[in-house]
Amino acid sequence: MPADTSYIAVFCGSRAGNLPIYEEHAAALGALIGQEAFSLVYGGASVGIMGTLANHAMTHGAKVVGVIPKLLLQRERYHSGLTELIVTEDMHERKKMMYEMCNAAVILPGGFGTLDELFEMLTWNQLSIHDKKIYILNSGGFYDHLLRHLQSLQEHAFLYDSLWTRLASFDEPIALMKAIKLEVGS
């Protein structure tokens, strides 16, 4: 990774979900990543909100690196038009590489894999394995229940410090990008 490039890792679904706002926000975030001169590292798929995100980032001038494990090459239909596609041996290597490459991480709607990535990033942050801020784009209130549950972890004294020192949640891509620019720059 060139030292003069700030990468945003985005973890999200390889499916589109059932509300148009999921793809709308993925498209808007991808466009903002390119417009603000960030680079994108993501899961490498050409489908779902992953594909929408990558396509809009590239259309708006971003360097886009996909990181995909061998076992998902065909299942998630890898994106053949990326700046770079990195194939890893397994999911763990994929996540580790994405964490190491990024300056900040964004969580969009997704399934089990997206939640796994969110919780591993939060855990590694708590353990000081990394100090990267994690941003949730709460498209259409998708993460409302989860955010309430995470807040309850703090209320019940299961966290070592404030949840909000590691995590920030936004309802709109523009507000999220403004926060990233303040924290990371571009």
Protein described:
With 186 residues, the chain is an alpha/beta fold. The protein has one domain (7-181): 3-Layer(aba) Sandwich (Rossmann fold), CATH 3.40.50. The chain has helices at 20-35, 48-59, 91-101, 112-126, 144-155, 173-184; strands at 7-11, 39-42, 64-69, 84-88, 104-107, 134-137, 167-170. A seven-stranded parallel sheet has the order 4-3-2-1-5-6-7, with helices on both faces. The two termini are 14 Å apart. The model has no long low-confidence stretch (mean pLDDT 94).
Estimated helix fraction: 40-55%
Number of strands: 7
Task: Specify the CATH class.
Answer: Alpha Beta
**CATH architecture assignment:** 3-Layer(aba) Sandwich
| Mean pLDDT across all amino acids | 94
CATH fold assignment = Rossmann fold
Q: How far from one another are the termini? A: 14 Å
Using only C-alpha atoms, the radius of gyration works out to 15 Å
Order of helices and strands: EHEHEEHEHEHEH
Quick recap of the structure?
This protein is of the alpha/beta class and 186 residues long. It is built from six helices and seven strands; from the N terminus they run E-H-E-H-E-E-H-E-H-E-H-E-H.
Describe the secondary structure blueprint for this structure:
Layout: E1 7-11, H1 20-35, E2 39-42, H2 48-59, E3 64-69, E4 84-88, H3 91-101, E5 104-107, H4 112-126, E6 134-137, H5 144-155, E7 167-170, H6 173-184
Parallel strand pairs: 1-2, 1-5, 2-3, 3-4, 5-6, 6-7
Helix pairs in contact: 1-2
